[in-house]
Amino acid sequence: MAAETRAPETVVAPAELDNLIGVLRGRGYQVIGPTIRDGAIIYAEITTAAQLPTGWTDAQEAATYRLERRSDEARFGYAVGPHSWKQCLLPPRLRLLRVQRDPERGFDVREEPPPDRPMALLGVRSCELHAIAIQDRILADGRHPDDDYAARRADLFIVAVNCHEPGGTCFCASMDTGPAVSSGYDLVLSEILDGEHRLLVEAGTARGREVLDQLASQPARPVDREAAAAAVRAAADRMGRTVEARGLRDLLADNLEHPRWDDVAGRCLTCGNCTMVCPTCFCTTVEDVGDLAGGTAERWRSWESCFSLDHSHLHGGDVRAAPRSRYRQWLTHKFGTWHDQFGTSGCVGCGRCITWCPVGIDVTEELAAIRGNDVDGDPPAVHLPPPTDDAAARDAQR
Known about the structure:
Elements: E1 10-12, H1 16-26, E2 30-37, E3 40-45, E4 56-61, E5 64-69, H2 86-89, E6 93-102, E7 106-111, E8 119-124, H3 126-140, H4 147-154, E9 157-161, H5 172-175, E10 187-192, E11 198-203, H6 206-212, E12 218-219, H7 222-237, H8 248-253, H9 260-265, H10 273-277, E13 284-290, E14 296-303, E15 313-314, E16 317-318, H11 323-342, H12 352-355, H13 363-372, H14 390-397
Parallel strand pairs: 2-8, 8-9, 9-10
Antiparallel strand pairs: 1-11, 1-12, 2-3, 4-5, 6-7, 6-14, 10-11, 13-14, 15-16
């Protein structure tokens, strides 16, 4: 994690993005950037700027995502897709070790080696930088650091992008995590589309300056800075969603028995999509698998979700058997008790959980409903149907 040393801004032509990728690859980086696959803008390895989603944007609403053509050739004219950068630093599935039976020496245990080359992430938005910082606090700088995460994070090169195109489900302005990039980058780009297509670039670290020096550039003019700043201000005004973030921790803690939990439980499929696309969720599970001959065994780590029954399974049963309790656990942890554990909210306002929920559950709507009808304040008369059996009674208490 390189120290930040901000340098004067310069301007480059869009064609220089290809040179930027080439310079990073020449310095040994695997470049991961936005590209189109399976009808979505995802993050994958790219080797040329031709793979960027030039001229494409994404239209997003609750349970809705589709690509649409833009009227310009913007390289970063979209919001965020189903992928987050979490997949690069905390892979969805990772082999931790391999055990091989040796007839003469017993067992040969080999831990999975770290990646053989560092990564450069191209196109990181401010909300996603905040998400990386949250995971850093937990997985790299916490009491129990994750060795694989720390190794991937140590030499990471970040090319950030100021967001000028929020999606219909974005609310980073409400969470104070965007749309402007403020820190945590090696280079930051602002794409300007006011007739003369160009990119305002600023280096945030010494190595960022070294890369920038290898690109054809010219000094930034006041008109360039103002155009970039105006685009960020416009993005902040066009957020698809808003949420009142003030006091959410106490609000949720005071409303653990709010009738809204039953309402959302009637819609929630407990599929875990929201946790899979969330850039800050970090729960994992570990599984040991062996071959049929008994000669080899492997230990694998995979993403886990608090919406699964196994996540809260203890001897004797599941702690959170009802959908109501599982959704409540996720929302109150993300917006509430995360503050107690990690000193910040667990939400960065990217809106992915709204877009990729198959039934369109909207966290901003759920939070507003609880705030607007705070049971701890003046609860309405709510009469729930009585449970029909002992199992239903236990679920109603959770």
